Amino acid sequence: MASYLFLCLFLFFPHLYASFSSSGSQSCSHPEAASLIQFKNSFSITQTDDAARYCNDFSGLKSYPKTNSWKEGTDCCSWDGVTCDHLNAHVIALDLSCSWLYGNFPSNTTLFLLPHLQKLNLAHNDFNYSKIPSEFGRFTSLFFLNLSRTRFVGEVPSQVSHLSKLVSLDLSLNFGQTFDEHALEVLVHNLTEVRHIFLDNIDMSSINPHVFMNLSSSLRSLSLGSCNLQGKFPKNIFDFPNLNLLNLGGNQNLNLDLLMFNRSSNLEYLDLSTMSFYTELIDSVGNLQALQYLDLSGNSFLQGLSVSITNLSSLEYLSISDANIFGGLPDSMGNLVSLKFLYLYRSNLSGPILKSLGNLWQITYLELSQNQLSGQIPFLILNLKRFEYLGIAENSLEGSIPDEVTTFPNLISLYLTDNLLDGKLPSWFYTAPSLKEIYLCQNQFSGHIKEFQSKSLEWIELEDNKLQGPLPSSIFQLLNLTHLSLSSNNLSGVIEFSMFSNLPNLKHLDLSYNSLSLTSNSTSSVNHILPNLTNLILSSCNLGEFPQLLKGLKSLERLDLSYNRIEGKIPQWMQEVGHDSLKYLNVSHNSLTEVEHFPWKNITVLHLSFNLIRGNLLIPASTINVFLVSNNNFNGEVSSLICNASALGILDLSYNNLSGTIPQCFGNLSYSLQFLNLQKNKFVGAKCNK
Ligand SMILES: *[C@@H]1O[C@H](CO)[C@@H](O)[C@H](O)[C@H]1NC(C)=O
Ligand SMILES: *[C@@H]1O[C@H](CO)[C@@H](O)[C@H](O)[C@H]1NC(C)=O
Ligand SMILES: *[C@@H]1O[C@H](CO)[C@@H](O)[C@H](O)[C@H]1NC(C)=O
Ligand SMILES: *[C@@H]1O[C@H](CO)[C@@H](O)[C@H](O)[C@H]1NC(C)=O
Ligand SMILES: *[C@@H]1O[C@H](CO)[C@@H](O)[C@H](O)[C@H]1NC(C)=O
Ligand SMILES: *[C@@H]1O[C@H](CO)[C@@H](O)[C@H](O)[C@H]1NC(C)=O
Ligand SMILES: *[C@@H]1O[C@H](CO)[C@@H](O)[C@H](O)[C@H]1NC(C)=O
Ligand SMILES: *[C@@H]1O[C@H](CO)[C@@H](O)[C@H](O)[C@H]1NC(C)=O
Ligand SMILES: *[C@@H]1O[C@H](CO)[C@@H](O)[C@H](O)[C@H]1NC(C)=O
Ligand SMILES: *[C@@H]1O[C@H](CO)[C@@H](O)[C@H](O)[C@H]1NC(C)=O
Ligand SMILES: *[C@@H]1O[C@H](CO)[C@@H](O)[C@H](O)[C@H]1NC(C)=O
Ligand SMILES: *[C@@H]1O[C@H](CO)[C@@H](O)[C@H](O)[C@H]1NC(C)=O
Questions:
Q1: 6, 94, 258, 340: which is deepest, by most CB within 10 A?
Q2: What are the record keywords, sorted (predicted)?
Q3: pLDDT, tens only, 420-467
Q4: CATH architecture of 1-218
Q5: Which of 644, 639, 675 is nearest to 659 (CA)?
Q6: Do 1-218 and 566-684 agree at the fold level?
Q7: CATH class of 566-684
Q8: Shortest-distance Cα residue to atom 8 of ligand 3
């Protein structure tokens, strides 16, 4: 979006391009440099909250402290984010978006002493819930102002309407910002040049939408998403000859006379999500021949999808997720030949998947998860070569996945979890060269897991199927693997822990509930082979002892060794395993006889039930939340130390030989404790002082 808008600006203001691009020979004046330094010094340069993360993860902008390059005594025209006019070296543009500025925005900041500023971008910084100072009105030369996602709150000052040269105004995503109706009216009236207005998430619940009637006829973008607008939106919005982007999404109580869409021939981007529209209204959208982006998600009144939508032959992005299109998709969906992204997540779709979707040969992203789709996956769909993402999880698909299809050169993610799919895993599953994530759990897949030819996989979830036979040796060569989950199948064979030594990135390993035997033939070589493991789930893996593999696992968080044959005591060396990190330990249903320590400082769930453990009941760290020790041979009294566990919610001490009185301080746990089982012990009545 940003680069696109920038391009627009240059197309219409070619003289600006000249001044932006050249770095002149003159250096900036001392007062301007001093003003910039003082502005910088009014903030602490800290990466806070999600502002910086947003830059990196979502918008692809780099987030770093641009002002670090600002050094007194150097030419400010060369500083990062500063642009000067090459004739007289005035600072004319300042782009400090994603620059870690944090702190209250001072209303007397020296920034306002830069009278030649034409472009100001402070997006994605954190002004700590301060107000936009009315002094912004002094930037009368500004044509571009971007204060998006800056944590400004409160009323937008009416002085913003002094910026009558503004071409682009972005105040979006400042939650807790409001507009006074009169201020907005004046703004709309005075910004006669404005082309791009982004005011998303500003609270406009007290504003009559008719104020938007008199917007400049140059308008190209109007984004008012989730502004809590109420009432009827002026229908002359359809008369703006150049309107290209319209976002009214998320305004649940806003009406729009959709029948007028036949006039908006230049519209390319339209967001009408979560606006309570009915199918009949959406009908007229079919006239928008230039439309590339359409979001109708969250309109629960849709009943089926009107054929007219399939008229949008330029459409590249279509989302009707979280809507009710129970009536189904029209067959002519296949006419949307430009579609690259199709989101129909949780849209109340049922019946078979439309075969005509197989005509969408440009599609890269198809999301059909959480519907009630049934029948087989059409062969034609799996012939679409450009998929990067295919999600049809949580439906009722059945039959096997077609095998003789394209090799999916670009496929990265495959989500088919929770269906009724059966048969063998398709052969392309082993060969797709870019595949990183496969989620096929909770299906009925059977047969062997074959050798992987592609090594790109990072995430494999195959649990809850009927896969059988040994693990292919190539699985231990998937060097980038971080998550391997194979539980609850019929896999068999012997796995040497040393086989994992090529998978140093592995974080999650779940082999439970198969017929696998895990062994280590050499005790020394398996230490430290999985340094980054955080979750190890080896329930029912025929283990006779605590696996040596655990040695050296400093960041383990979750360990499940339940339903094995482990005897004796928890070995001394286990004290080092996850010492500060372990949160969940389940060693229930073994034959342990002794526990000497609970060294884990961060433990929240400790499950020791169904063993043969004798001796006094040890009390775990006070972080404990679930403590289950039933069906053991614990004896003696319960220490009142247990009451230090202020978050204890579930305590099961049943079926032991515990005796004495129940500690009186149990009463202090009454806020946290939800479940308490003490039965079948030898407790005597608690002394009651009250
Ligand atoms: C405002 O800046 C942010 C971050 O650079 C960018 O994503 C957004 O598109 C900009 N808004 C406008 C209207 O240019
Ligand atoms: C942010 O605001 C809070 C509350 O007003 C204040 O205590 C804190 O000092 C401010 N932080 C900065 C860096 O200005
Ligand atoms: C702005 O005002 C504050 C106090 O109100 C003062 O400490 C600071 O020096 C002033 N800054 C400038 C640049 O005048
Ligand atoms: C409208 O813009 C002009 C500058 O073009 C300015 O002088 C005037 O004060 C503005 N009006 C309001 C009501 O802000
Ligand atoms: C729009 O402009 C017309 C003519 O200038 C004026 O009469 C009308 O009151 C304005 N409407 C709004 C809502 O500002
Ligand atoms: C647009 O549709 C409306 C309602 O169907 C109709 O009255 C109007 O004449 C149409 N306008 C154009 C320009 O086609
Ligand atoms: C499809 O678009 C054409 C103009 O290209 C228009 O005449 C026709 O009415 C549209 N059909 C539907 C169903 O909207
Ligand atoms: C799905 O559609 C049916 C039929 O219109 C309706 O009864 C049901 O409430 C819808 N479910 C959801 C989650 O919208
Ligand atoms: C493994 O990950 C690295 C770093 O992301 C990447 O460069 C490499 O190509 C990946 N290996 C395979 C086989 O995909
Ligand atoms: C462990 O994880 C860290 C951070 O996630 C990564 O930098 C490091 O390379 C990983 N270690 C190994 C041996 O892969
Ligand atoms: C342990 O088993 C692995 C894999 O089966 C094998 O490569 C290795 O040579 C064995 N090491 C010893 C010491 O037997
Ligand atoms: C302890 O647990 C808390 C909460 O789950 C977590 O934030 C913290 O990082 C953990 N400490 C260590 C050392 O892992």
A1: 94
A2: Leucine-rich repeat, Membrane, Repeat, Signal, Transmembrane, Transmembrane helix
A3: 999 999 999 999 999 999 999 999 999 999 999 999 999 999 999 999
A4: Alpha-Beta Horseshoe (3.80)
A5: 639
A6: yes
A7: alpha beta
A8: 108
